[in-house]
């Protein structure tokens, strides 16, 4: 779509996409891994100036030495041997250190970012910062906003779908507040769709996310939710489900996630 911009920061038209694991956008992409990477990164930015994503445990160890950083990570929910902490937002809040950086490697969310090399801007979003990440995405977008769900073991994860719906709700609200209209005629300003071109997927995510009680129930019942509870991370799950408790938005710059 050809975009005619009204200013340096706002587009007249924007396409909003919802996809799984891999980013296709060259504009703005939001990584969503509700349980737990998105929350871990977002909370970590209260305590560290940067979060450095690593795609393997070996790379994480090397980066932590290079940057004198806290070493954080997990595989299948379990803290990696020899690491300072796991992929736990709760542990971060209680962890005491003078270090300014944290290296993080995770099974799904951070791994998803390895497939997000093309976008001009990569943001990190979840339930806890849905409103703020939506606002940031709209501010940055020139033609497209893509939400990339991390999933679980390369499969659909309902918690990421519901968190994506929460973010989509606020993206649409933000666009409407800017007097932009959905695609109903040739004068529209934005379009909700997925990679196959069907708007129902994104719309379904929005609708599914609007019932707080049912959404929380499904997150708790999800494969990830039950696995984390079994591993004694129930508090993390509860924290990850909280809505808009922070205005932190992580943005990837030069291989590091910093505050937007």
UniProtKB/TrEMBL annotation:
It is an enzyme of class 3 (hydrolase). Its EC number is 3.1.3.71. SUPFAM superfamilies: ComB-like (SSF142823). Keywords: Hydrolase, Magnesium. GO terms for biological process: coenzyme M biosynthetic process. It comes from the Archaea. InterPro entries: ComB-like, ComB-like_sf, ComB_archaeal. One of its GO terms (molecular function) is sulfopyruvate decarboxylase activity. Its cofactor is Mg(2+). Gene3D superfamilies: ComB-like. It catalyses: (2R)-O-phospho-3-sulfolactate + H2O = (2R)-3-sulfolactate + phosphate. NCBIfam families: 2-phosphosulfolactate phosphatase. PANTHER family: 2-PHOSPHOSULFOLACTATE PHOSPHATASE-RELATED. Belongs to the ComB family. This is 2-phosphosulfolactate phosphatase. It comes from Methanobrevibacter ruminantium (strain ATCC 35063 / DSM 1093 / JCM 13430 / OCM 146 / M1) (Methanobacterium ruminantium).
């Amino acid at each position: 779509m050809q975009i005619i911009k009204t200013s340096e920061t706002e587009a007249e038209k924007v396409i909003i996409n919802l996809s799984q694991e891999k980013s296709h956008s060259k504009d703005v992409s939001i990584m969503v891994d509700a349980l737990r990477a998105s929350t871990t990164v977002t909370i970590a930015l209260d305590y560290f100036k940067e979060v450095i994503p690593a795609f393997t445990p070996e790379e994480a160890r090397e980066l932590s030495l290079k940057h004198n950083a806290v070493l954080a990570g997990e595989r299948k929910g379990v803290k990696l041997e020899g690491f300072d902490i796991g992929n736990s937002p709760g542990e971060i809040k209680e962890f005491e250190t003078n270090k300014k950086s944290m290296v993080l490697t995770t099974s799904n969310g951070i791994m998803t970012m390895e497939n997000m090399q093309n976008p001009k801007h990569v943001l990190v979003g979840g339930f806890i910062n849905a409103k703020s990440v939506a606002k940031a995405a709209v501010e940055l977008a020139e033609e497209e906003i893509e939400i990339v769900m991390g999933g679980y073991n390369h499969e659909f994860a309902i918690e990421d779908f519901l968190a994506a719906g929460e973010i989509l709700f606020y993206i649409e609200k933000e666009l409407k507040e800017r007097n932009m209209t959905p695609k109903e005629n040739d004068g529209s300003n934005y379009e909700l769709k997925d990679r196959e071109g069907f708007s129902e997927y994104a719309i379904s995510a929005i609708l599914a996310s609007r019932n707080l009680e049912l959404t929380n129930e499904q997150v708790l019942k999800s494969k990830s939710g039950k696995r984390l509870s079994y591993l004694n991370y129930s508090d993390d799950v509860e924290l990850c489900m909280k809505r808009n408790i922070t205005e932190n938005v992580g943005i990837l710059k030069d291989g590091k996630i910093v505050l937007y």
